[in-house]
Write a structure and sequence with these properties.
With 209 residues, the chain is an alpha/beta fold. It has helices spanning 2-11, 44-61, 74-86, 127-138, 155-163, 174-184, 191-200, and strands at 15-17, 23-24, 30-31, 33-35, 67-71, 90-93, 106-107, 115-123, 142-151, 168-173. The chain has seven helices and ten strands. The relative contact order is 0.17.
């Protein structure tokens, strides 16, 4: 599953690996990888793989799930499709409360005590995902965990998720992606170590040398 999803993401350019011409994140960090999982929605075959995979995570890892909640905005469509497969209700969590109407931050009906799984597209440092979990917990939900498409597996993200007591299962990760990228010729074999070095410490730019 991890390698198949990695191959899918690379094939539709949802993930770019560019160690020789790094991307610049909003934080200023130079990165050899750029991920845009929204592109999975416009490829029917890849989308089917992704949604079937997310449904399998919920079914096997969180069998008690009563409702799915997508992260705004990239997780919303995936939550809706996965919920349809599983015949579960869904909603989503806004990045902030609305400044009009009822001022909702959680969209869709959520009862106190309901068992929730969060659907996320990408996890890097874990901050935005943890914010969503906290909003749901404050509303009285029991958050079972997170099902995501891809994770960088950064130590900072893993530590933050553990500290917040948030369990995540991802369809694929940077390690699998690097292996597939080298096998398929997207990167050179010698680039594998550089990409893992970046993952281990994004602030250390020595991987670029």
């Amino acid at each position: 599953m991890e390698k198949q999803i990695a191959k899918d993401l690379l094939s539709i350019q949802a993930v770019f690996l560019r160690p020789e011409q790094p991307f610049t994140w909003a934080s200023g960090i130079k990165s050899p990888i750029y991920c845009d999982n929204r592109l999975t929605l416009t490829s029917v075959e890849v989308r089917n793989h992704v949604e079937a995979g997310l449904a399998e995570i919920v079914r096997t890892k969180f069998p008690e799930a009563e409702v799915l909640m997508g992260t705004s905005t990239a997780g919303i469509a995936h939550a809706a499709i996965t919920a349809t497969i599983l015949n579960l209700p869904m909603g989503y969590v806004r990045s902030g409360a609305k400044d009009h109407g009822r001022g909702n931050q959680i969209e869709g009906r959520l009862e106190k005590g309901q068992k929730v799984v969060v659907i996320e597209d990408l996890i890097s440092t874990g901050g935005s995902c943890i914010e969503v979990v906290n909003v749901l917990r404050e509303a009285g939900a029991e958050v079972l965990g997170v099902a995501s498409i891809f994770t960088y597996g950064m130590k900072k993200g893993l530590d933050r998720m553990a500290e917040a007591n948030v369990i995540n299962y991802s369809l694929s990760n940077l390690d699998s992606l690097v292996e597939v990228a080298a096998e398929e010729g997207y990167i050179k074999q010698e680039d594998k170590e550089r990409l893992i070095k970046f993952r281990n410490n994004p602030s250390d730019e020595s991987w670029m040398k």
